[in-house]
Amino acid sequence: MPPRTIPGTTGRPRPLRLLGDPALTEPCREVTDFDDGLARLIEDMYATMYAARGVGLAANQIGVPLRVFVYDCPDDEDRRHLGHLVNPRLVEADGPVFRGPEGCLSLPGIEAGTPRHDHAVVEGVSVTGEPRTVTGTGFFARCLQHECDHLDGGLYVDHLTGLRRRRALRAAARAPWAARAVAVDSGR
Ligand SMILES: [Zn+2]
Questions:
Q1: Predicted TM-score (pTM) of this structure
Q2: Which residues are catalytic, by number?
Q3: Is 131 helix (H, G, I), strand (E, B) or coil?
Q4: pLDDT digits (tens, 9 = 90+) for 36-77
Q5: CA of 2 to the centre of ligand 1 (A)
Q6: Could you list the residue range(s) of the whole structural domain that residue 110 is in?
Q7: Residue 103 Cα to ligand 1 middle (Å)
């Protein structure tokens, strides 16, 4: 056994679920089995995130309805945050709310100014069940809130209203990948 491996190098990228896929709107289940299957899932999630050049990925984005996310994300001071959380709970989301550019691997190529708190704390456990607390500010706080939303069946476009929402959904409907996704939320 190597003492430490780079996350994702033993995983394989899996197909991403896109806007309109029911896997993205169903709340995920708590993980109860801390076994090899969970370790493989997390490795595949890192591999999928890196292949798609994302900064975070929730398990339901590859169609697995479990409460797990991975991240490799900078904050506003360019500090790198790399890791995973199992059974995460957003225990704090506070500080000023900023509207900043946000995207999602499930809506590739689309970005919209989305309001998020500047500070977030998430508690959960590691792949082996060890307690973990992750604190984020700035862009990383945004990422943590975004990934927690996914596990509850939410998407960042849920936080948009009015013209911003209409623009994002219209862009999604016209996106090259839209033919593979189911049309949702037409009209509004
Ligand atoms: Zn996302």
A1: 0.93
A2: 147
A3: strand
A4: 999 999 999 999 999 999 999 999 999 999 999 999 999 999
A5: 32
A6: 22-177
A7: 7
